[in-house]
Amino acid sequence: MEIAAYQEMIAPLPCTAIAAILFRRYLLMALTSSLFWNMFGLGAAMDSKPNILLFLADDLGIGDIGCYGNNTIRTPNIDHLAREGVKLTQHIAAASLCTPSRAAFLTGRYPIRSGMASSNGYRALQWNAGSGGLPANETTFARLLQQQGYTTGLIGKWHQGVNCESFNDHCHHPLNHGFDYFYGMPFTLLNNCQENKPPELDVALQAKLWLYSQIIILAVLTLIAGKLTGLISIRWKIIACFTFVGGLFFISWYSSYGFVRYWNCILMRNHDVAEQPMTLERTASLMLKEAVSFIKRNRHGPFLLFVSFLHVHTPLFTTAKFLGKSHHGLYGDNVEEMDWMVGKILDSLEKQGLKNHTFTYFASDHGGHLEAQDGSAQLGGWNGIYKGGKGMGGWEGGIRVPGVFRWPGVLPAGTVIDEPTSLMDIYPTLVHLAGGTLPQDRVIDGRNLVPLLQGRAQKSEHKFLFHYCGSYLHAVRWHQKDSGAIWKAHYVTPVFHPPGAGACYGRGICPCFGEGVTHHDPPLLFDLSRDPSEAKPLSPDTEPLFDTVIRKMGRAIEEHRRTLTPVPEQLSVYNVVWKPWLQPCCGTFPFCWCDKEGDTTQSL
Fold it and tell me: What's in the keyword line of the UniProt record (predicted)?
C-alpha cells in the first residue's frame, strides 16, 4: 500500500483506532518474519530442508574430549560445538566394534537384523577383498535423503565392504548405498598401514602360519640332507612333491597377509582407487580438503556430508604439526589433530554462510580401545568412569559415546540431556528433518530425537536397549520412566585378563563366547542412575525390585527375539577371508600400485 493512501485511510480515525490498526499490522509482520520464529527456535524448522553434517570418530573414548570432562587433551572445537548445542550423556552405540556399529548407525537397526553381527571370532570385516558387507537390500539414511533431493557425500572410513562376486561389482560400496560421492578408505586403518609397525591383522593366526611354514621348511631340509647323506631312503619325487605342497601352503597365506598394506590400506574416489597403498603423511590433509570442497560445491544445498574420521584408530598416524603437543603422547596428539580438522570443517561451513542452516552431529562409533598399547604407552582411548571398552558387548565403556548436536536457532544452546539415546536414532532423525518417510517393510530400532533435542519431550522414546557382542546378547538396559531408574542386566561378561585388569590384555580384544566369557544366572544387575560405573551389582538382598526387574527384562528379550528374522551372516568365515578376485586394484592384479593424488600412476 502506498504511504499517502495509507495516511488518507487512517486520518479520520480516532487515536485509539489508529493505535489498534498499527498494532495489528506490526503483529502480523512479526508473526510472518523469521526473526519472531527464530526467537522461539522454530525458524529453521519452518524453513527449507537443512544441510546435514555428521562427524563420526573411530575408537574415541567418551572421556577423551573436554566437554565430557577431560581437562588435559585440548578439544576446543568439539567443546564449542557442545556449548552451542545439545550434549547427550547417555548416547549408546549398538555394538562395541566398528563394522557392526556403523551398520546400525547407517540403517537405524541392530546389526543382527542385517546380518552384520558375527557368531564367530571375526566380528568386523578383515579385508577389502572379502565378500561380506552391508547388504544391498538395507536402506541407509543416505539413500532416503538422496530420494528427498539431498546431495550426499561420504569422506573417510567406510568398513562396510566393497564387492560381492567380482572386483568391480561394488555391491557393498558407498555409492550403492545412497552416497553420490565417496572419497576415503573402504576399509579401516591398521598398524599394517604404517611401515615399521607391528602387524595388527590376525596376529595370532599369522604366528601359527609362520610356525607351520618353518616346520615345513625344516622338514624339507631334513629330507634333502637325509637323502644326500644316505641316512633316509626316499625318492626325489616325493621330496619335490612335499616341497611343492609346502610352497603352495606358504603362498596361499603369505599372498594375503604378506601384503596387507597393498590390499587393505587404499584410498578410493568413488569407484576408482586413488592411492594403493595410501600415503599416511598426507591422508589427513586430503580428507580435510575433500570435506571443505564438498561443502563449497554443494553450498546451495541441501546436502548430507558424512565425515567418517580415520582418527583415532591405531596406528595413530599424526602429522608433524601435532606430534608431541599433547599431554597424552601419540594418542592425545591424534585426538587434538582430529579436533583441529573438526574446526576447519566448521569454519568452512561458516564461511559459506551455512552455519545456521546446518544440522551438525559429532559422535564416536564405540568406546576407546583399552588393550591398544605399545609397551607402557597407551594407544587407546579413555572411557572416563565407565567400565570396559572396545569389543566388550555390554560394559558401558565399550558402548557409551559422545553425542553432540548443533542447529542454531532450532536446538537450544548449552543443553545437556541425560536420557538414554542410541546411534541408531540418527537414522529416523535425519529422515524426519529431510521430510522423508521411514521404510515400512522392516523394523527400525532408532527413534526420532528432534522432540527430545528441542525440549518438547522430556523422556527418551527408548524403553529397552539390547547390547550385543557379535550375535550374542550380553546385556539389556531398561529405562523405567516412572521412577527414573535405568536398570541394566548383564547375562554374559568377558573374563578380564589378567584377573581384575578391566580389559583382555592377554587377548588384544575380549571375546563374545566360549571360555573367554562368564554366563550369569541370575544376571548381574545395576541401576545406572545410581551406579553409572557398574561397580556394585545389586542382589535380591540389596534391591527389593530385583526379581521384578529381571522378569520384566526377560519378557522384553522374548518380545525382541520374536522380531528377528534369519538373514545371511555377512561376517561368516567364508565372507571375511581374502579373495584375490575381489581385490580392488588400480593396476593389473597383482601389480596394484598407484599414487593418483601425487599425479603419478605406476605399476610395480
Answer: Calcium, Hydrolase, Membrane, Metal-binding, Transmembrane, Transmembrane helix
pLDDT of residue 603: 35
**Cα-flanking dihedrals φ and ψ of residue 412, to 5°?**
-65, 130
Number of H helices, E strands in the chain: 18, 18
> What are the beta bridge partners of residue 105?
none
Q: What is the mean pLDDT of the chain?
A: 91
Residues in the chain: 604
Give the three cell numbers for residue 540.
535380591
- Do residues 185 and 210 both lie within one domain? no
Domain that holds residue 211: 203-257
State whether the Cα torsion 266-267-273-279 is positive or negative.
negative
Report the domain count for the chain: 2
Given the residues 98, 193, 504, 510, select the one marked as catalytic: 98
Integer Cα distance of 138 and 154 in angstroms: 17
10 Å CB burial of residue 282 (0-12, 13-18, 19+) is middle
Find the catalytic residue in 80, 159, 172, 311: 159
Q: Is 159 a catalytic residue?
A: yes
Phi/psi for 33 (5° steps) reads -90, 150
Residue pair 329/378 in contact (Cβ under 8 Å)? The answer is yes
Q: What is the pTM of this model?
A: 0.90
Average pLDDT rounded to a whole number, residues 538-561 = 97
Q: Are residues 162 and 270 in the same domain?
A: yes
| Alpha helical stretches, state H, 121-182 | 141-147
**Residue 94 counted as domain residue:** yes
Q: Is 98 a catalytic residue?
A: yes
- CATH code, domain with 362: 3.40.720.10
Distances (CA, A) of 328 to 46, 281, 324: 45, 21, 9
- Cβ neighbours of residue 306 closer than 8 Å, sequence gap 6 or more: 54, 56, 142, 152, 153, 154, 155, 156, 179
